[in-house]
Design goal:
The complex is a heterodimer of chains A (332) and B (254). By secondary structure, chain A is an all-alpha fold. Chain A contains 14 helices and no strands. Chain B has a six-stranded mixed β-sheet with strand order 6-7-8-3-9-10, sandwiched between helices. Chain B starts with a strand and ends with a strand. The chains are: A mainly alpha (332), B alpha/beta (254).
């Protein structure tokens, strides 16, 4: 497998990133503190910081980054275009609408319902984008992006409407702000566990679907003559992308560019086959978001930036660079 | 012996009927060229024969079985299609693309079996792609790309090979090279081979020419008969001259 050495490096990088994420923060900690807290012999405040704040947050950031990387891989494969990801296709916006909607309902079950509602919102908008992009028979990246803009605008309008119409949301402004700006917020450890389960399902599906998505690269009709059922595969890919996006948005809201940049940057290194790309994107996305969140937490410590700000600031220029380079190659 | 048969086949898109009563039987041993003016239904017939679109009336059968009843995976292991356009924005290598020909035969987790690896290796060798196997598609010339697509279709190990304008965008030497390859598969490889061709002079190199006009077959036979002057004038319009040059049918703008 062409990407094996790269994947090995990325796998090794993840524990290092997670370690850095746990050690570095507003309160500096030593590796000894962390070990002591984990085995239960540290002082109470250190134990709380590590067990209830840093560790869940770092794991959540890893899950979010990994999920977005894989979701980006799936959507790029489905739309046959390296410019698609959950954010630009409006899938994330749909998930955010679902999450905010559940928070507006103010149910006690919110922690459990948020990922489900985010999944439902992601599924609805991804199916919507796919349908819109197919109008006229041919899917072009322009129609995908335009459909994404339409859906994102619509979902944002509904979120704003909810914000004004719901009294409960005024009381949960922080949670809503986290979702809209892309802040990793862990309210309960069970949330991370649930999201981990959903992400595992999504990644598993991506691995199983990888070979079929490869056949999609040359168009739906060619995929069909190669033995892939286009409708069933499309639904499965959208379902997997929605699971991953829903879990990511439930934990961290709208984090842009990870799903777009990570697969795009890895493709020249590990190759185009979607199974390898999905696995590499999971580990690279996880490390990238843990480190981005580390930056977000420490740049203005003790104030914490939403990680979406960091991914936007770094991701947008990087994406622009990739775009310009791709353009130059086309001309050359 | 494999037989791909269309009986009273009608097909189209939405309410627009394109094929209006096609009867056609394809067997191994002869390369068949499908010709006709633009919009006569050549690509639609190819789609219907490969099970990509469902007939509105009549049926396509493969060895007596209606293709509409076969799964995509089963069809792909029996019928290989070389599409008209074949391109991607992703950096797939030649080997990976030829490997796609085995998609239908892969298990749930997609590990290639020894048979898969063998079919891919053989297709790469047959199409003389060994030196290019690790190159990217966009680094290849038009003729090399067409060999890659052909290798992908051959890796399917299918009994039927349907080609949609396989010689478009190729220079004359590569055009006849592709037809020689496909002709060889049909004549000695036991493959049912049908190629949609735009160029009547290339079609004349086939063993059998089927002429399609406005959704109906109006000529079917050896090149000299199917491309007779009166048929060519009636179907493709006046202003074409048909000649026999050293035993071959040649169509010239007159």
């Amino acid at each position: 497998m062409r990407g094996a050495p790269t994947i090995a490096i990325l796998v090794a990088l993840l524990p290092l990133s997670v370690g850095a994420g746990i050690l570095v923060g507003a309160v500096p900690l030593s590796p000894g503190d962390v070990l002591a807290a984990l085995v239960g012999t540290a002082d109470p405040s250190t134990t709380v910081i590590i067990r209830e704040l840093r560790l869940p947050r770092v794991l959540a950031a890893a899950l979010v980054g990994g999920a977005l990387g894989v979701a980006g891989t799936l959507l790029q494969g489905l739309f046959r275009n390296p410019l698609a990801d959950p954010y630009v296709t409006g899938t994330s916006a749909g998930a955010a609408l679902g999450a905010v909607g559940v928070i507006a309902l103010g149910s006690d079950l919110a922690a459990t319902l948020v990922p489900l509602a985010a999944f439902a919102g992601a599924l609805a908008s991804a199916l919507g984008v796919w349908q819109l992009a197919r109008l006229g028979g041919r899917t072009t990246i322009l129609t995908v992006l335009l459909a994404g803009i339409v859906l994102t605008s619509f979902a944002s309008a509904l979120v704003t409407l909810l914000l004004f119409a719901s009294d409960r949301l005024a009381l949960r402004l922080r949670a809503v702000l986290d979702i809209l700006t892309g802040g990793v917020a862990v309210r309960a450890t069970s949330e991370v566990a649930l999201a981990g389960l959903i992400v595992a399902c999504g990644v598993g599906l991506a691995i199983v679907l990888g070979r079929r998505i490869d056949a999609f690269a040359f168009g739906e009709e060619t995929a069909a003559t190669l033995g892939v059922d286009p409708e069933r595969t499309t639904i499965a890919v959208i379902g997997a992308a929605a699971l991953l996006t829903g879990a990511a948005v439930a934990l961290a809201g709208l984090v842009g560019f990870v799903g777009l940049v990570v697969p795009h940057a890895l493709r020249p290194i590990v190759g185009a086959t979607h199974r390898t790309l999905a696995v590499a994107s999971f580990f690279a996305g996880a490390s990238a978001l843990v480190l981005a969140d580390l930056g977000a937490r420490t740049a203005f410590a003790p104030a914490e930036l939403p990680v979406g700000v960091v991914t936007g600031l770094l991701g947008a220029p990087f994406f622009l660079f990739l775009l310009v380079r791709a353009r130059r190659r086309e001309v050359a | 012996m494999t037989a791909l048969v269309a009986r009273a086949l009608e097909a189209g898109y939405g309410t627009r009927a394109v094929l209006r009563g096609i009867d056609l039987e394809l067997n191994p041993g002869r390369l068949v060229a499908l010709v006709g003016p633009n919009g006569s239904g050549k690509s639609t017939l190819l789609r219907a024969l490969s099970g990509l679109i469902r007939p509105t009336a009549g049926a396509v059968t493969l060895d007596g079985v209606d293709v509409a009843t076969l799964s995509r995976a089963t069809l792909a292991s029996r019928i290989a299609v070389v599409p008209q356009s074949f391109d991607t924005l992703f950096p797939f290598t030649v080997r990976e693309i030829v490997g796609l020909g085995r998609t239908a035969r892969l298990g749930l987790f997609g590990r290639p079996s020894p048979a898969d690896a063998l079919a891919v290796a053989r297709a790469i060798l047959d199409q003389d792609l060994a030196a290019l196997a690790d190159r990217r598609l966009d680094a290849l010339s038009g003729g090399e790309r067409q060999r890659v697509v052909l290798a992908m279709a051959m890796a399917q190990d299918a009994a039927v090979l349907l080609l949609d304008e396989p010689t478009a965008h190729l220079d004359p030497a590569h055009q006849s090279g592709i037809l020689r390859t496909v002709g060889g598969l049909a004549r000695t490889g036991g493959v049912v081979a049908l190629a949609v061709l735009h160029d009547l002079n290339l079609a004349a190199l086939a063993d059998r020419v089927v002429v399609l006009d406005r959704g109906k077959i109006v000529g079917d036979g050896a090149p000299a008969a199917a491309l007779a002057a009166d048929v060519v004038t009636r179907v493709f319009g006046p202003g074409l001259a048909v000649a026999q040059v050293s035993g071959r049918t040649v169509v010239l703008p007159g």
